[in-house]
Amino acid sequence: MQNEKDLFDMLKEMYPQHPRKEFVSATENTLRQRARSLGKKRIFTKFSVITSGVLVCAFIFSWLISLNGSGIVSRVAHSDGRGALSYAMEEKKPVVYIYQSHNRESFFPELPEQRAYREQPPYSDTKNVTLVGKELSRALKEMDINSIHDETDIDGILKQRGLYFPDSYKVSRENLQKVLAENDSIRMVFDIHRDSQKRSESTIEMKGKDYARIKFVVSKTSGNYETNKIFATQLHEQLEKLYPGLSVGVIEKGIDPKNTYNQELHDNSVLLEVGGIDNTLEETYRSMDVFAQALKVILEKSK
């Protein structure tokens, strides 16, 4: 005589992945007949519950499978190892913070109306180093490296508050402190600028394309001078391995003891000067794409 376990095993063997109505009806009739043959009302009652439960599970499973393309299964299967990993990837914390203290610094090739005069360095409300920072953030994202790109209009805030250009770092410091306080995952901080050098000094040709050279600036008056210098040197050396000549090198500045470029707020903080007044945005973008590769290598080594 078949017991409850035998019937349940039979049900699993008969159950298809996508049950049709005919199958459901036939299965239920078969179970009813077997239950009656056992002559025990309690078994019939138990297996009616089992049948209903299994069929409901079959329906839910089939429904989830059919919606797999929309990503619902991966979200529902949150307890699964891979599901948890997928969720963690989506919620990955930022490790790089990018900002621009002199956010309106621009490039003459992007501003024909200013290029004709060249009496003052180029500045623009729209075509400026903020776009360079945005490109770095995009390139990092492609490499699965989360970053925070601060697009705050520092120059605009200076005008609103009646402050002057040297106060730029005081304003950018406010957001930097806030971000660091809220994100202990930040491992690198970059303040992006544009140099004032001419094209011959700020550009290098590699593999048939022009790139804007990158300069790593470290404040000698910062409380983190030594650690920031080590970090800047590491960046320079890694970039040299990938694209020799793209890096100008590590430059130490300490003219104004009050201006630390906010580098005392983080051990791995560096001011980047990307290109000069005669570079194009496209050339700076190429450099940021390569720089992102260098950052990826460094981050992977430090895991």
Can you walk me through this structure?
This protein is α/β, with parallel strands linked by helices. It folds into two domains: 22-65; 96-302, 3-Layer(aba) Sandwich (Aminopeptidase). It is built from twelve helices and eight strands. It has helices at residues 4-14, 21-38, 41-66, 72-76, 81-90, 112-115, 129-142, 154-161, 168-182, 199-202, 225-242, 281-301; strands at 96-99, 147-149, 188-193, 203-206, 209-212, 214-219, 247-253, 269-274. The strands form two sheets. Strands 2-1-3-8-6-7 form a six-stranded mixed beta sheet, with helices on both faces. The model is unreliable at 14-18 and 37-90 (pLDDT under 50). The chain crosses the membrane at residues 43-65. Keywords: Membrane, Transmembrane, Transmembrane helix. InterPro entries: Spore_II_P. Pfam families: SpoIIP.
